[in-house]
Amino acid sequence: MDYVDTGRSGLMILTRKGSVLHIDDSARTLLFLATHGANPAGFGRVNLAITIPPVLRQLCANLDGIFQGWEAPPPSFSHTNGSGRFVFRAYWLQSPTVYLEPETQGYSPGEDGLIGVVIEHQEPLRLQLQRKLQVWRLSPREQEVGLALAEGLSQATIAARLNVSIQTVMTYVRRLYAKLEVHNRAELLDKLRHDVPTSASRSSIAR
Predict the structure, then answer these.
(1) Neighbours of 41 (CB within 10 A)
(2) Is 149 inside any structural domain?
(3) Are 26 and 71 part of one and the same domain?
(4) Of 117, 155, 150, nearest in space to 133 by CA
(5) Domain that includes residue 56, residue range
(6) Are 16 and 114 within one domain?
(7) Higher pLDDT residue, 201 or 151?
């Protein structure tokens, strides 16, 4: 399944060992959704206590290992549940001070490093396209056909899925293209991904 960014993101600040120093409201909400699933309040502020999953401390350990020259996995992680996909990325806000060990003549990092963890939310592409089609105020059948076209289905496959003739599907396609002022499937997908209708255009389409 393809996922796309929703533009929702949050920031956490942790110590080198993974202790949380700061978490903004967006990160708190996304972390709650990532660990608990759907939130009845949507993406509003979450006031419930959150639990820091062990994977965040592991991300800090991975980042620290790379800093010290060890072989370590990338400091990123993704998790998918009913609320979408959540991508966690760790990076240095402030690299730790490096000290010389007199006995070994080697170097070791201090405890003063600060790590930022960005949490980004993604949703299924199908869900985003479906929401865009609803915004354009198309008929339910036109929305179904538009979504199927965006998924790359042929008109014959769409006809079989909807249990209608291919001529009927062709009629819906012509209406859909005319309403959205596009000429082919590529233009339709581009419009659904990047264009947001104005109130005037929505009114003209609805008539």
Answers:
(1) 12
(2) yes
(3) yes
(4) 150
(5) 3-124
(6) yes
(7) 151
Structural domain count of the chain: 2
Quick: pLDDT tens for 133-192: 888 778 899 999 999 998 889 999 999 999 999 999 999 999 999 998 999 999 998 888
Residues 89 and 183 in one domain: no
Whether 98 and 30 map to the same domain: the answer is yes
DSSP string, the chain: --EEEEEEEEEEEEETTS-EEEE-HHHHHHHHHHHH---TTTTS---S-----HHHHHHHHHHHHHHTT-----SEEEEEETTEEEEEEEEEEEPPPEEEETTTTEEEE-S--EEEEEEEEEEEHHHHHHHHHHHTT--HHHHHHHHHHHTT--HHHHHHHHTS-HHHHHHHHHHHHHHHT--SHHHHHHHHHH----HHHHHHHH-
Q: Are 83 and 173 found together in one domain?
A: no
- Confidence (pTM): 0.67
